[in-house]
Design brief:
- The complex is a heterodimer of chains A (about 110) and B (about 180).
- With about 110 residues, chain A is α/β, with parallel strands linked by helices.
- Chain A has a single domain, classed as STAS domain (Transcription Regulator spoIIAA), CATH 3.30.750.24.
- Chain A has a 5-stranded mixed β-sheet with strand order 1-2-3-4-5, with helices on both faces.
- Chain A is globular, with a radius of gyration of 13 Å.
- With about 180 residues, chain B is an alpha+beta fold.
- Chain B has one domain: Heat Shock Protein 90, CATH 3.30.565.10.
- Helix content of chain B is about 30%, strand content about 25%.
- In chain B, strands 1-4-5-6-8-7 form a 6-stranded mixed β-sheet, covered by helices on one side.
- In chain B, strand 2 and strand 3 form a beta hairpin.
- In chain B, helix 2 packs antiparallel against helix 3 and helix 3 packs antiparallel against helix 4.
- Chains A and B meet through helix 2 and helix 3 of A and helix 3 and helix 4 of B.
Chain lengths: ~110, ~180
């Protein structure tokens, strides 16, 4: 299954609820485009809900980094929410867990944005 | 056995061509004759081939008795090797192909994926964990292969590169 997403806003934070795969040729490009669209519209607080993302490959990790950098360069913040064990393990192995602010609870994640 | 596909092969085609001589041994799935259980497949340099190789690796790993998590990891390592071959090696060149071979023995599952590209020097790959590389958007594929598999070897071909991935079975303890 390729990646699907819906976008919603909670207390000024744009939340992307992602599901499926973020891999080369499937979800990656879509995620990059969507995050850049959100930034272009002026939103600088972005939360990626990865609770239903069951698979990420190295290209998908690159897309997460690309999205993180794009938001940061625009003066915003991008955080991750609800990592599955597979995705968390990958972020730990690659040390990307030290780059991203990872949250487990949506309410506290939304409140954590400055 | 070797399959060569004019277009993209299907897993079904690969499965039909396999010699399915799996036999249970010591409570685990094992193979009686490793030479009869090496399968080769040649695929076009398209993204669909990545999925075929990934699915094939996962199926063979499960059939070989690896647990679900390990089979999934083996599939991911295979995916990364296939992406390396098709995207970075052959650069989607329609005149170039990727050849994969899967071998199962009592000791290990071995996957070899070869491209026809200009070659890869694994010693020159940047370390994706260093502070200067951590925010790079690429360069984690080989690192993940090495993290997942027990052995990752690169062989230079003429032309191309072959990546050899090995995942050993966990040896059962013997009680005297």
């Amino acid at each position: 299954m390729s990646m699907k997403f819906t976008t919603r806003e909670v207390n000024g934070v744009t939340i992307l609820d992602l599901s499926g795969k973020i891999t080369l040729g499937e979800g990656g490009l879509t995620l990059r485009e969507e995050v850049r669209n959100i930034v272009a519209k002026g939103s600088k607080k972005i939360l990626l809900n990865l609770g239903d993302v069951n698979y990420i490959d190295s290209s998908g990790l690159g897309e997460l980094v690309s999205a993180f950098t794009a938001v940061k360069n625009a003066g915003g913040e991008l955080k991750l929410l609800n990592l599955t064990k597979k995705v968390r393990d990958l972020l730990v192995i690659t040390k990307l867990v030290t780059v991203f602010d990872v949250k487990d609870d949506e309410a506290s994640a939304v409140a954590s944005f400055a | 056995m070797r399959l060569t596909c004019a277009g993209v092969c299907t897993v079904a085609a690969l499965s039909r061509g396999r010699n399915s001589s799996y036999t249970p041994k010591d409570g685990r799935t094992a193979l009686t004759d490793s030479t009869a259980n090496r399968t080769s497949i040649t695929l076009d340099s398209v993204l669909g081939s990545v999925e075929i190789l990934e699915e094939t690796a996962e199926k063979l790993a499960r059939d070989a008795g690896f647990d679900e998590d390990t089979a999934s990891q083996i599939a991911m390592a295979t995916r990364e090797a296939a992406i390396n071959a098709i995207v970075h090696g052959n650069r989607y060149d329609p005149t170039k192909h990727v050849t994969a071979s899967f071998g199962i023995t009592d000791d290990a599952l071995t996957i070899q994926i070869a491209d026809e590209g200009s070659g890869l020097d694994p010693d020159k790959l940047p370390d994706p964990l260093t502070p200067e590389n951590i925010l790079r958007t690429s360069g984690r594929g080989v690192f993940l292969m090495r993290a997942i598999m027990d052995e990752v070897q690169f062989h230079q071909l003429n032309p191309g590169t072959e990546i050899r991935l090995v995942k050993r079975r966990i040896q059962k303890e013997t009680h005297s």
